[in-house]
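Re: How this chain folds, sequence and tokenised backbone to follow
How to read it: Take the token row as a discrete description of the fold.
Start of record: The labelled sequence and token lines come straight after this line.
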Amino acid sequence: MRVNFEHEFKKGYFLSEESLIKIDDIIKKRFNNKVVDISFRIFRIDGMLIESNSIDSILEEENAPRNFINRIVIKAETESHYMKLTFDSEESISLSIISDSRDFANLLIADLKEYINSEVIKFSSLDFYKLKKLILALLMIGIMVYITFVIYNDISQTQSVDIEKLKSSSDLNTKLNYLIQNRAATGYGEGFIPMMSVMVTLIVLILFPIEKLIRRVFPKNIFYWGKRKSLYDKYKDLKSKIFWGIVIGFIISIIAGLILNNFNA
């Protein structure tokens, strides 16, 4: 009975030389090292397509920014079995198996899935479209909460005005000046414009298609050999500096500001 199996690994991968050699070894062993037609197709960002029957042709690639590997397709085929394993830098990993033997297909699937899931899959799946919608919704909620907070405090402060003092004065200008000074003293509206500017900027960044820029700086799928190896190590250092220098610093500054405000209150 002929069986057909398709599987897609949703998460991001980190494919090193060691992992690629191990995957090649798993395929050959599962085919019992019989005469099997194994081919490797390498797609590069410069448009070059390289086809070979040796895994060495992949590992010998320069894999530099001008000729990054974009996709690798591994095919193994006999009269009874067919396997296609694809590593795509924009998508993820996909596996396709067609076989006359259900046992063979199940064993090959089990071996590849076990190794890939435990040793190659490293990064969580990130759907930028869903993420943008979530952040946008949270920003909208934040804006509404902030506006409500400002309006509520302005109304509360206005209601706390010394009514008797206003009544005792017949000068309209005096009353207006008192109200203006009283509202300015609250300080709640001073940060409204900067806050709104930050929120609008974030919304613009979310709505614009910046996924390619983000994935270039913080790649999700990695072919970790050649010059890409040293570049990825630099990316890791950059992410660490951004996290500790900007994100953590921003959180600390907010906490410090809240503490100072409480002391001054």
Confidence is low (pLDDT under 50) at residues 185-189. The radius of gyration is 30 Å.
